[in-house]
Amino acid sequence: MANVDCLQKIVVFLVVITITIFSFKIPITRLEFPLYRVVLDPGHGGKATIPKDEYGDRFDVLSMKYLDVYREGASYKNYHEHIYTFEVAKRVETLLQLLSPNGNFEKFYTILQKYTDKPVKRIYIQTFMSRGPSLNSHLIHKEPNAPYRLFDFISNDGTLKEGRISYINSLKPHLVVSIHFALNSSPYFRGMNAVIAAPYSILYKGLQYFQGTIPDRSFFYTSKYADWFTEDERKSGFFWYSNDVVMYFTGYRIKNDYSIDTDAFRGYRYNMVQWAYNDPPGWAHIAKHHPPNTPYANNIQQFIPQNAFFTREQSKYEQYRRDGGFEGYGGDNLYASNEIIRFVLYNLYSKGIRHKDQRLAPPYISIWSVPLHINAINAFIEFGYLARPYTRTIINNHLDDVAEGIAVGIYSLFAGVEVTKKYPYTPYGKKIDLEKYKIDNDNDYFTIVR
User: Is-contact 381 336, C-beta < 8 A?
Assistant: First the structure.
């Protein structure tokens, strides 16, 4: 009987424990609608202070020096790019917070009604900022450029710190919206411009040209990427394309005769950020000797694009981001940029604002750092030119209208918005197909970046 009583007590004890466990369920948050992560990236900030060796950007572990001066952004009289990019971004952040899981979608819906009379979808957006305000920060911060550098850097205490690109990658966003104002441009580019990184296909053809397997330059002039960004109009677009091709692959600039300038090393940028495509530990000990038949060769004839970064560059996901797409070229990056611009223009036109500079202008095509070194879709936009009176009028009177257009454009990229009225540069209103970036049930291209 004692054994029976003991067994009964054990059974009762187990039943009580089981009931207790199931009575205290771990709460699991299940979102009712899709959640998208967005980073607002207001351009520049900091201070273009000398010497470069102390205050620069693009820190190179081979030389343990900064390879570039710090670029604080464009200025014209009392108009400073780094101030107004942040002002726009904060306004957009306020609007997107209405779409957070705890936000007020009904209020955002009243904004959408200005653009469409069609049904709209409920989505969630989680919003981040890539930097804080920069006004007078150089007067109060011991390291004035520390919060604003794009690339990783060595702090005053000797430790490696994350730059903004690494921080953006740590957030694993679906979309990054980089907000900029330039100083001035030729009439051809005046308006609002996308800034896009060319796809691997056209860059690789440049490598083949330098290595002699493509005999002439026609591949460039017949491509959709022939309108290359020129740093100096005294040299041809093909020269600047060639300079970027050599720098993209080898890290070096070129001379006027198209030979590599071995005194103009610009670094291996993909190793200046923290992400999944860094070379393995110890790479710098090999790279400093620039051995032939490696991705570190300083002779373009002996260069081989074989490492994690160049494998990533040749992936279908980078093709989706940077080639083809709704615009016919430029991929989802160009579409996202142009679509946000179209929503901004739509809002300005709806307010009765008209100007010859109020247009969707051609994109700037090069090997820009942010579009290249993140996995997110990147809408990188020059919203105007500070030396132009029209842009200053927009800054003085219509920043809220610009921010609203950006916010609605971001929403549309995820949910779609069929606009009601037809103005010049009417938005397409098509959402981006994010399913094509899916890798498996647990991962997509955006989550594997770090």
Answer: no
Q: CA-to-CA distance for 81 and 70, rounded, in angstroms? A: 14
Question: What b-and-e string marks burial along 356-371, b requiring 16 or more CB atoms within 10 Å of the CB?
Answer: ebbebbebbbbbbbbb
- b/e code 111-128 from CB counts within 10 Å (16+ = b): ebeebbeeebeebbbbbb
What residue ranges do the domains of the chain occupy? Answer: 37-449
Give the number of residues written for the chain: 450
pLDDT per residue over 239-270, tens digit each? 999 999 999 999 999 999 999 999 999 999 99
- pLDDT, tens digit, for every residue of 383-433? 999 999 999 999 999 999 999 999 999 999 999 999 999 999 999 999 999
Q: Are residues 244 and 266 in contact, defined by beta-carbon separation less than 8 angstroms?
A: no
CATH label, 37-449, candidates 3.30.450.20, 3.40.50.300, 3.30.110.70, 3.40.630.40:
3.40.630.40
Of 161, 157, 106, 180, the residue nearest 341 (C-alpha): 180
Round to the nearest angstrom and report the end-to-end CA distance of the chain: 63
Helix (H, G, I), strand (E, B) or coil at 231: coil
- pTM (2 d.p.): 0.92
Whether the upstream peptide bond of residue 101 has omega within 30° of 0, thus cis, is no
CB atoms within 10 A of CB 17: 10
Structure tokens at 58: 């693009």
